[in-house]
Amino acid sequence: MAVYVWKGRTLAGEAQAGEIEVARQEDALDALRKKRILVTSLRPKSGGMSMPKFGGGVSVSTKDLAIFTRQFATMISAGLPLVQCLDILAKPASKPAFGKVISEVTREVEAGATLSDALGKHKSVFDDLFRNMVAAGEAGGVLDEILMRLATYIEKADALKRKVQSAMVYPGVVLTVALGATAFMLIFIIPTFAKMFTDFGGELPLPTKIVLGLSDFLTHWWWTLVLGGIGSVIVFQRYYATENGHRAVDGFMIKAPVLGDVLLKGAVARFTRTLGTLISSGVPILAGLEITARTAGNKVIAEAIMSARASIREGETVSAPLKASGVFPPMVTQMISVGEQTGALDEMLTKIAVFYEAEVDTAVDTLTSIIEPIMIVVMGGIVGGMVVSMYLPMFKLISVVAGGN
């Protein structure tokens, strides 16, 4: 048995925390879920500085899961028995571990378990969204349609995730290259000029002194920057692991200039696509909102979704608390309100998702077009500034020599 420290929220949105003693992390999640608590953080009591994470066990790529789901749907729609479909799919799995999981699911189904229950024993591979949609498909007798819809959802969600990640990675890569080029010049090129200026003697211009000082610091005290960077990462992780820190960082990210626009639109697209898919598949809206909150990827948006869930429990609308949160764009809340009034909420959510997925593409292109000229100017300014500062003493020397003649 192990002790886990958890943080979460009740269905009414009240923050709670505590400890629980169970054999596995999955058991802790199950126990807290039965108490109707939405878990936001779960870690062993021994601590550590890793980010909150859930699940474990077999790791399956989104691509493999999407291929499995689409092939499964095709076989079911062709009339093949469920067990035979699973047995066929277990053999060509790209990863042996995934094939083993499918084989175990096959044995559970052969023993009389429902497909959703069998999948529930492998929560590290099949998440709540996957299992709930399968359960809805089994109950409605439309498992093939649900699986096909689920495969489409997984593919679109993965494509959206890659777009948002590329938007976040691109500035980091460009900044790293810029800093690397600057550090290379300061460590390997500038010291050559420093020795030459020392031999010349005389008073150096202020810009030259600044560049030489930076070069000397980076050459002899680089380790302080490394330690400072490591310390900053540790402090940030500790802060992000707290309730207020998590909320503050996620809130800042979606409000940051340019990049925040990409992240917010990506979060809106993910939220509407997930909830629309769940509702259209027959999953109850309360369960759908809880699952959507867990997959939101942003604490501020997750809390807004849970407020909407509490509103639904009290007989009110979904759109009102989303609008009150101030996070979602007015168009989103208005379209959701129209969807509720017309009884076509799932269709309206899908339309919003399609629109915002296209908006993410545009926002990523905009981000790229803005960053490229800015980084060219910044790099040109840094390199040009260092070159000029190194040549200033030479100009001074030339003028002195010319004056002497």
TrEMBL record:
<dbReference type="Pfam" id="PF00482">
    <property type="entry name" value="T2SSF"/>
</dbReference>
<protein>
    <submittedName>
        <fullName>Type II secretion system F family protein</fullName>
    </submittedName>
</protein>
<feature type="transmembrane region" description="Helical">
    <location>
        <begin position="169"/>
        <end position="190"/>
    </location>
</feature>
<keyword id="KW-0472">Membrane</keyword>
<feature type="transmembrane region" description="Helical">
    <location>
        <begin position="374"/>
        <end position="392"/>
    </location>
</feature>
<keyword id="KW-1003">Cell membrane</keyword>
<keyword id="KW-1133">Transmembrane helix</keyword>
<dbReference type="GO" id="GO:0015628">
    <property type="term" value="P:protein secretion by the type II secretion system"/>
</dbReference>
<dbReference type="InterPro" id="IPR003004">
    <property type="entry name" value="GspF/PilC"/>
</dbReference>
<feature type="domain" description="Type II secretion system protein GspF">
    <location>
        <begin position="271"/>
        <end position="393"/>
    </location>
</feature>
<feature type="domain" description="Type II secretion system protein GspF">
    <location>
        <begin position="68"/>
        <end position="191"/>
    </location>
</feature>
<dbReference type="GO" id="GO:0005886">
    <property type="term" value="C:plasma membrane"/>
</dbReference>
<dbReference type="InterPro" id="IPR018076">
    <property type="entry name" value="T2SS_GspF_dom"/>
</dbReference>
<feature type="transmembrane region" description="Helical">
    <location>
        <begin position="221"/>
        <end position="240"/>
    </location>
</feature>
<comment type="similarity">
    <text>Belongs to the GSP F family.</text>
</comment>
<keyword id="KW-0997">Cell inner membrane</keyword>
<dbReference type="InterPro" id="IPR001992">
    <property type="entry name" value="T2SS_GspF/T4SS_PilC_CS"/>
</dbReference>
<dbReference type="InterPro" id="IPR042094">
    <property type="entry name" value="T2SS_GspF_sf"/>
</dbReference>
<keyword id="KW-0813">Transport</keyword>
<keyword id="KW-0812">Transmembrane</keyword>
